[in-house]
């Protein structure tokens, strides 16, 4: 199974180095010098890691096949992939394809919708939830809000704070202070 470990960002410098949006919890191993990485789209690779460096928490990589800035700029948005075994499982880690299609339930048992995907944002990942009325809601994928991920059971359990879900708008209580004057 091929999984995305990083997305190539902007070119950095004149010698073909690129910034990466890392999507793996083990970049040192996945992006080691000499690693040959398939790409998506496939016609942009494979790419061989020639050197890496981390500066202020940001990964920069040079590939053997990318000699200059022009070639590096052409790679922006390309995903770097890695082959993983289907039995390579971490108890507290899920791949986007495992989460898509799961039923989202509230801690009280109400069905809140269906998970349609996972997005990687700068602060943290978010689940993309399609609520029963079709509304698209982004739910922070943190343990406090998503305490249970039950892939075999086909569900995630959410404990969302008030106002997070689009369906909460219909249940908002307006106090006299915020309602304004009716006079």
Automatic annotation (TrEMBL):
<comment type="similarity">
    <text>Belongs to the RimM family.</text>
</comment>
<dbReference type="GO" id="GO:0043022">
    <property type="term" value="F:ribosome binding"/>
</dbReference>
<dbReference type="InterPro" id="IPR056792">
    <property type="entry name" value="PRC_RimM"/>
</dbReference>
<keyword id="KW-0963">Cytoplasm</keyword>
<comment type="subunit">
    <text>Binds ribosomal protein uS19.</text>
</comment>
<dbReference type="GO" id="GO:0042274">
    <property type="term" value="P:ribosomal small subunit biogenesis"/>
</dbReference>
<keyword id="KW-0690">Ribosome biogenesis</keyword>
<dbReference type="GO" id="GO:0005737">
    <property type="term" value="C:cytoplasm"/>
</dbReference>
<dbReference type="InterPro" id="IPR036976">
    <property type="entry name" value="RimM_N_sf"/>
</dbReference>
<dbReference type="GO" id="GO:0005840">
    <property type="term" value="C:ribosome"/>
</dbReference>
<feature type="domain" description="Ribosome maturation factor RimM PRC barrel">
    <location>
        <begin position="97"/>
        <end position="164"/>
    </location>
</feature>
<protein>
    <recommendedName>
        <fullName>Ribosome maturation factor RimM</fullName>
    </recommendedName>
</protein>
<dbReference type="InterPro" id="IPR011961">
    <property type="entry name" value="RimM"/>
</dbReference>
<dbReference type="GO" id="GO:0006364">
    <property type="term" value="P:rRNA processing"/>
</dbReference>
<dbReference type="InterPro" id="IPR009000">
    <property type="entry name" value="Transl_B-barrel_sf"/>
</dbReference>
<dbReference type="InterPro" id="IPR011033">
    <property type="entry name" value="PRC_barrel-like_sf"/>
</dbReference>
<dbReference type="Pfam" id="PF01782">
    <property type="entry name" value="RimM"/>
</dbReference>
<comment type="function">
    <text>An accessory protein needed during the final step in the assembly of 30S ribosomal subunit, possibly for assembly of the head region. Essential for efficient processing of 16S rRNA. May be needed both before and after RbfA during the maturation of 16S rRNA. It has affinity for free ribosomal 30S subunits but not for 70S ribosomes.</text>
</comment>
<keyword id="KW-0143">Chaperone</keyword>
<dbReference type="Pfam" id="PF24986">
    <property type="entry name" value="PRC_RimM"/>
</dbReference>
<keyword id="KW-0698">rRNA processing</keyword>
<feature type="domain" description="RimM N-terminal">
    <location>
        <begin position="5"/>
        <end position="84"/>
    </location>
</feature>
<dbReference type="InterPro" id="IPR002676">
    <property type="entry name" value="RimM_N"/>
</dbReference>
């Amino acid at each position: 199974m091929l999984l995305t470990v990083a997305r190539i960002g902007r070119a950095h410098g004149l010698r073909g180095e690129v910034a990466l949006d890392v999507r793996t919890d083990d970049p040192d191993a996945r992006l080691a010098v000499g690693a040959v990485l398939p790409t998506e789209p496939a016609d942009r690779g494979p790419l061989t890691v020639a050197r890496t460096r981390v500066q202020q928490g940001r990964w920069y990589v040079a590939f053997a096949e990318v000699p200059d800035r022009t070639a590096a700029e052409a790679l922006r948005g390309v995903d770097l992939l890695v082959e993983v075994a289907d039995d390579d499982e971490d108890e507290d880690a899920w791949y986007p394809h495992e989460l898509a299609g799961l039923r989202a339930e509230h801690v009280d048992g109400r069905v809140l919708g269906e998970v349609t995907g996972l997005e990687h944002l700068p602060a943290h990942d978010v689940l993309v939830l399609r609520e029963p009325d079709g509304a698209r809601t982004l739910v922070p994928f943190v343990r406090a809000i998503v305490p249970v991920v039950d892939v075999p059971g086909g569900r995630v359990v959410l404990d969302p704070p008030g106002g997070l879900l689009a369906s909460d708008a219909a249940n908002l209580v307006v106090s006299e202070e915020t309602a304004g004057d009716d006079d």
